Amino acid sequence: MENTKITKKLDELLSLIEQDIAIQEYKEIEAMIENNPKLQYLTKKSKKYQRISIQDAFSQQEKTSINTGKYTDDLHDELKNPLVIEYNEKLKHADDLIRHITHLLESEIQKKMEGSKIE
Predict the structure, then answer these.
(1) Residue of 111, 110, 45 whose CA lies nearest to 78
(2) What's the first-to-final CA gap in the chain, in angstroms?
(3) Cα-trace Rg, the chain
(4) Which of the residues 24, 26, 61, 82 could staple to 94 if both were Cys, CB 3.0 to 4.6 A apart?
(5) pTM of the model
(6) What CA–CA distance (Å, rounded) separates 80 from 39?
(7) Separation between Cα atoms, residue 98 and residue 103, nearest integer Å
(8) Which residues are within 8 A (CB) of 20 and not within 5 positions of it... i.e. 6 or more apart?
(9) DSSP per residue over 41-100, as a string?
């Protein structure tokens, strides 16, 4: 029963977060990028080569890592268009909002827990 109350309140909080301007702006720019085939293609390639670079770094294959790292850098240069730059800014704002809310929740829960302790 109590979990149902918590789930309901969580759903209310998520609904409020989705209505925030930072989240709305992020979703709008994300949709623009998703509807741009060239940016989607470049983004997928970039993520692929980032994964390869990370795997190479862990397996210490230096030569391959240097090559894929350079290719990833070249892709990032191609992705430096106004839409991607704006997307990254909106993503940062949305992330900041979520981090702030998370911090507030943690702080309030800790205060409540400390206030209910018997000393």
Answers:
(1) 45
(2) 30
(3) 21
(4) 26
(5) 0.65
(6) 10
(7) 9
(8) 97
(9) HHHHHHHHHHHHHHHHHHHT-HHHHHHHHHHHHHHHHHT-SHHHHHHHHHHHHHHHHHHH
